[in-house]
Amino acid sequence: LRLCGGGEDDRLFDGIDWDLEGHDNIESATNEFTKECLDQMGELSALLKNDGLIVSIAPPESYLDITLHGFSRSLTLTYPDPWHEDFTYHGRNSYGYVLAKWSDAIDFVFVQFYESYSHATYQISRLGHEPADFLFKYTSRLAENGQGVSINFEEDPTVELDNQIVPLPLSKLVWGFANGWALNDDLGEKTVFFDTSAVQEAYNRLVATGHEPRGMGFWVVGEESSHGVQYAAGLNKILKIRSHMDLGRDDVQVEDI
Asked: CA quadruple 157, 158, 161, 163: dihedral positive or negative?
């Protein structure tokens, strides 16, 4: 992880982000996490953390679902919502296994609200909930649940874990959004776009209650300016991470967050 003979300042990278997901081919063997794979994620995370690197995980919404308590290593499941039940690529709290055993090794959790046909998309696109209300209620619910996710691991005896509340402190929660690509016409209601004004409203309301998340991010930097959306600058106005002066340029406000 370091240049040959180098010290702490000569690392080749700052850490690792786990974004393991299923395969487009429903028959693929990789559409089920093996226990060995999940153990390797956790064990390597602990080694990296002990070496001073940053470790994050980026579960699609269904891979770490604060609203459902079931557990499965399968990634070919459906949501109980009466909506797009033909979409059989959801998970069921599989990333919860890693958090249950190696929570201290994970620095932050980037929850992908833009997962295809997610709860977020269903509540906003189909039920008509305001995006700011969704974010406020989601985060408030997590806070009310003791900043943890209740998961019934005993549904899969092979993982050898008791049913438990897995810690997901707000100090590690990062809201995960899609930037301009989510507005592409061919996507229809497959994913959801959160305007940064709605993100700002939700964040301000949560700050007032003391329940704000650690931060927010987006996928993907290559789509910045798509449909005129400048998501990095928009999120920076909320979080105030840096000014254009920090970048040494007058025409750029912020890099990718």
From this structure: negative
Q: Please, what sign has the CA dihedral across residues 31, 39, 116, 232?
A: negative
Nearest to 96 by CA among 46, 29, 38: 38
Ranges of H-type helices in 75-114: 95-102
SS3 label, residue 117: coil
Q: Give the H/E segment covering residue 26.
A: none
- Please name which of 114, 110, 69, 67 lies closest in space to residue 213, comparing C-alpha atoms: 110
Q: Is the pLDDT of residue 178 over 50?
A: yes
Determine contact, residues 238/231, Cβ cutoff 8 Å: no
pLDDT at 142: 98
DSSP annotation of 123 reads I
Cis geometry, peptide bond prior to residue 220 (ω within 30 degrees of 0): yes
Q: How far, in whole angstroms, is CA 171 from its chain's centroid?
A: 14
Spatial CB neighbours of 61, under 8 Å, sequence gap ≥ 6: 111, 112, 113, 115, 118, 119, 120
Number of neighbouring beta carbons within 10 Å of residue 74 = 15
Chain centroid to Cα 52, Å, comes to 22
Q: Phi, psi (5° rounding) for residue 46?
A: -65, -40
Q: Phi, psi at residue 26, to the nearest 5°?
A: -60, -25
Sign of the CA dihedral with 76 first, then 81, 87, and 93 last: negative
Contact between residue 137 and residue 198 where contact means Cβ atoms under 8 Å apart? no
Which tens digit of pLDDT belongs to each residue from 68-101? 999 999 999 999 888 899 999 999 999 999 999 9
User: How far is residue 132's CA from residue 195's CA, in Å, rounded to a whole number?
Assistant: 9
250 in helix, strand or coil? coil
| Host H or E run for residue 54 | strand 54-57
